[in-house]
Predict the 3D structure of the following.
Amino acid sequence: MNFASIAYVMGTLLLVTGGSIILPVICSLCYNNEGDLFSLLVSGAIMLVMGLPLWWFFRKNQELNIKDAFFIAVFGWIVISAVSALPFMIHGSIPSFTDAFFEMMSGYTTSGATILTDIEVVPHGLLFWRSQTHLLGGMGFLTLTVIFLPHGMGGVRIFRAESSPGQVITKEKFMPRNRDTMIWLWGIYSALNILQVIFLYGGGMSLFDSLCHAFGTVSTSGYSPYNASVGHYNDAYFDWVIIVFMFLGGMTFMLFYHMMKREWHVLKINTEFRWYLGFLLFFCGGTSLILWTENTYPNLTDSVRYATFQVVSLLTTTGFTTADYEQWPQAAQMFLYAACFIGACAGSTTSGIKIVHYVIIWKFMVSSIKKIFLQPMAIISVRLNRRPVEPLTVNLAICYFIVNIFLILGGGCFMVLVDDMDYVTGMSSVIATLMNIGPGFGTIGPSENYAHISTAGKWFLSYNMLVGRLEMFSALVIFYPSFWKK
């Protein structure tokens, strides 16, 4: 392994993260320093002091190989989550390193799971820092760092190590150079954040709240500066604005580029996007119908509003809430529980299994049944976006799905045994963290949090978040002994 180049990238990561703390510092000053300014300044200084020597002394770097990229993809997230916990620990709002690390890992991986029992007592500067982790982690802060790396160093390998298998399947590269691709992606991502801030602020939400909720929406993350999440406002306008931008955050970002170029045929033939719309209409329609017929809400309009918000939030792995859905009828809860297993589109800011994998597995099942029972002599291929899918890609989708199921079952058993919790909470905690959703069912439901979970449980769930955000394989390959051999 090229440890000099790894140290250089780690130094760049620390400099980017330490430099970004300027925004929470400005926020703290705007709110007349509620006691968080010192902790932010000291933490930022520590990150810069740690990062600058690594960046300076190892700047004569060599190209990264794929093993280096996997190492950076896994340990880069861990290191940044650890140093990002410093402001909360120095201030005292989260004195425990385990809890602070959990909160930051949850923020960067866009999980939105929290250990804070009273969010609203935390100073505005720290709350902004907490929400800013969504902004940096939503598109993948390693991809942001790659923009600053020297040309030819192998940043594309870091991008692939951090990317999902779904992105490999859909081959989402629309610019000749990978750096140009990342600049475009970050430009689109930033534009969506700015646009949502304008809509929320224009509707009467404060600028601070607009920024925090925009950071948590487009990145499909879910941190809110209020205990009741978006339900704090009880405002239909805010709900629908956030629904729209959660939906946009769940789309393949490559489609925005083509729409900007007025290449509408790309949107029309995109198989995953059509399935995305189909899943949303099915789950939103079914949940709305149940809430309306069971008189959970006084009229159809409210039933559609609350059902659509919660379905889109869980399907896109955002995790915002406007109601305690555990008080809904069991049938409606089953729709929400099923949505947790899906995720949105590959190449978006969402996590989860991703729709493209379900598309490929379904088409593979249909083609296999046709070949076995109807057309044994025919050669039937799986097609995606009107193009045949390679057999290796089909195997990757099936493998990815199976590994997810095994991790959920094994992780759920581990949580039940370690924390002596009920099986609903145990399974849900693993699903909510592995899929980067945040809130789940049981004692981690929309009106609860993760504070009561043991130290061992929090570390295990923190690793689950990382596994889910790196789409599994990058975070698991480091456990193979052969990975560490030359």
